[in-house]
TrEMBL record:
Keyword Ion transport: no
Protein name: Dienelactone hydrolase
The keyword Hydrolase is annotated on this UniProt entry: yes
Molecular function terms, GO-annotated: carboxylic ester hydrolase activity
Organism of provenance: Roseibium suaedae
Domain Dienelactone hydrolase positions: 60-251
């Protein structure tokens, strides 16, 4: 009996050792995680656009450091309306493997939300930008991060925030970090709003990735904005994957196309900043509201492995070039 127990233990340890040998220190493994609670505000779009104070809040973020010796370049992740999801992990692993730290913001949990898909009005459309600048402040003063090599990558509502976080006006209003992002990379953002001075961007290049089959945030409006920015001299490019739907890079959605029946989309709206920071619906001539007829329900989300792989390669290459890692 004792012999059998010893033999069983030996087999277990052998199997455990074999499993460990398969997983120890692959290049994409995070070597250290640091969790940061930090102060921010919940703001209406009017408050954001006029530089007015909102409600004090505390949210959090996770810094994941790669193997090696710093100071490291870093990329801030800004999630979409659904919160931190399955798209983040592959990005973290790919960037960590290249020696790039990541900082994942959670803008929702600290505010008492799980998701915003069917209640977009619950948080100002621009509020994520304040959270983004707060993350930049943490990283710019971290002893293992290079403050001149910090990039921003956002998805959906977070992609919208990543796009407009590049505006000089918004940096002047809300970015107190003393640093600027080295580059801005929005994935499938909404571009339906026109803001004052939205053609004046910071120096960091902007690279947008969108799906041609996206009916959540249709890419055509972004194309028009990109052309307007190019004429103004901005360093901006947009890549469209024809078969890509909203969320094309999310691994759990590969091969699927799902309708978000209760999700709200402003894809058909025409919104422009008016006096005193009021966002106006140009079709009604009244302040924009998520009760407006242009807001519709039922957009789709879907992953596309080919588009994801292409966007991974293009984005990682862009970060490597921007951070001087090639």
């Amino acid at each position: 009996m004792q012999f059998k127990m010893i033999a069983a233990l030996a087999m277990f340890l052998a199997g455990f050792g074999s499993a460990m040998a398969e997983t120890v220190f692959t290049p994409d493994m995070t070597v250290r995680e640091e969790i940061y609670p930090y102060a921010t505000q919940t703001l209406s779009d009017e408050q954001f656009l006029t530089g007015s104070a909102g409600k004090a809040e505390q949210i959090g973020g996770i810094l994941r450091l790669p193997q090696g010796k710093g100071p490291f370049p870093a990329v801030v992740f800004m999630h979409g309306s659904s919160g931190v999801g399955a798209s983040i992990d592959p990005w973290t692993r790919m960037l960590n493997e290249k020696g790039i730290a990541t900082f994942t913001i959670d803008s929702l949990t600290g505010r008492g939300f799980k998701q915003l898909g069917d209640k977009q009005a619950a948080l100002g459309r621009l509020n994520y930008i304040v959270d983004i600048y707060g993350a930049l402040d943490i990283l710019a003063h971290h002893d293992t991060i290079d403050p001149k090599r910090i990039g921003l990558l956002g998805f959906s509502r977070g992609g919208q925030a990543a796009l407009y976080a590049s505006m000089t006006r918004f940096n002047d209003l809300w970015n107190t970090s003393g640093a600027r992002f080295a580059t801005y990379v929005p994935f499938y953002p909404n571009c339906v709003s026109v803001y004052k001075d939205d053609e004046k961007l910071e120096a960091g290049p902007v690279r947008i990735f969108h799906g041609g089959a996206d009916d959540y945030n249709e890419p055509g409006v972004c194309e028009a904005y990109v052309e307007r920015l190019k004429k103004a001299g901005a360093d901006i490019e947009m890549t469209i994957y024809p078969e890509g739907e909203h969320g094309f890079d999310v691994p759990t959605l590969f091969g699927k196309s799902l309708q978000s029946k209760t999700a709200q989309t402003a894809r058909d709206c025409k919104i422009e900043e008016g006096e005193n920071g009021i966002l106006m619906n140009l079709e009604t001539g009244k302040p924009f509201s998520y009760e407006d007829e242009c807001v519709v329900l039922g957009p789709h989300v879907g992953g596309n492995a080919a588009a994801a792989e292409a966007s991974y390669a293009a984005t990682i290459t862009h970060f490597m070039n921007t951070f001087g890692l090639n």
